Amino acid sequence: MIVxxxxxxxxxxRVHSIISIGAIELENPDNRFYEExxxxxxxxIEEKALEITGATREDITDPSRKSDKDIxxxxxxxxxxxxxxxxxxxxxxxxxxxxxxxAHRYHLENPLAHRLIDLHSLAYLHMIQKGMTPPVDPKHGHxxxxxxxxxxxxxxxxxxxxxxxxNGALYEAEAISRIL
Length: 180
Fold this sequence. Notes:
Number of helices: 7
Number of strands: 7
Shape: globular
Helix content: 25-40%
């Protein structure tokens, strides 16, 4: 299983770009992937995304960095060497959506499966099995089980800020491991 975390310039994979990719092979935690890149030229940038990641406009537009296409290709090559390639993470569809859109943008063969493992769902189910009520956002009426809440639930201290993709992957992998 590959635990994946991606940092981006926003939430829409059609207009925002990947900033970095972090991944860890759950069954072999020493096998890790982490790369940062420059964004594609017309990508939109949300200030909130820069606050979360600690990236600067100069960092993500630096012409000396690899392109987003390059690191997606590198990640796909890295994952092809992992025996069990099911993607896991927190809100995994978000991260996979950015990889899928990048693969489409650059006409790359997309090796990602549609079946994903999500920390949110695992923690939610685990809480129910333990007789607990998962937290609900009273304003929106849906689950408030963020990655930080799921990680705290499994006894993991808060991830340091700014949020870095490899740290996200490591923290999510540990939480998934503890639940499993």
